[in-house]
Amino acid sequence: MNYQYRFGNSFASATKTLYQDGGLRRYYQGIGAALVQGPVSRFGDTAANAGILALLQSNSYLKDLPSPIKTIFASLCAAAFRMILTPVDTLKTTLQVQGAGGTAVLRQRIKMHGVGSLWWGAFATAAARSWGIILGLLP
Questions:
Q1: What stretches pass through the bilayer (predicted)?
Q2: What are the pLDDT digits (tens) for 37-64?
Q3: Which sign does the torsion angle of CA 33, 35, 38, 44 carry?
Q4: How far is the C-alpha of 34 from the C-alpha of 45, rounded, in Å?
Q5: Confidence class for position 126, pLDDT limits 50, 70, 90
Q6: Measured in Å, how far apart are the chain's first and last C-alpha atoms?
Q7: Residues 113, 117, 118, 124, Cα dihedral to 10°
Q8: CA distance 11 to 134
Q9: 22, 42, 68, 77: most buried, per Cβ within 10 A?
């Protein structure tokens, strides 16, 4: 899907191109990063929600905050945790789109723009995710 999004190909065209680029293994570029990112980000979401709600409940001044305010705090902490994982997502997406040469693309990007370039888009992603949770649009 990331390959299709980047290059604007149809499913059939993308599938054919990816297969020609490396056989069945090409479909699984980025799987290592995905296997780290998925569970760790879910853990972070759960820990942030449960942890922040417990922390707020244990504070005599904050325990009486309205539930929507508590949800906003928890959502912001979950978003911050996901921002920490942005380089893993960057690696995963780059490998999915560029294939085996993706690591070279990232090395060049870091050389040109610095290590901070691995976090490009982190604030926008966190904001979109946080507002989706707050508004009840995302789990």
A1: 117-138
A2: 999 988 988 998 899 999 999 999 899 9
A3: negative
A4: 16
A5: confident
A6: 22
A7: -170
A8: 33
A9: 77
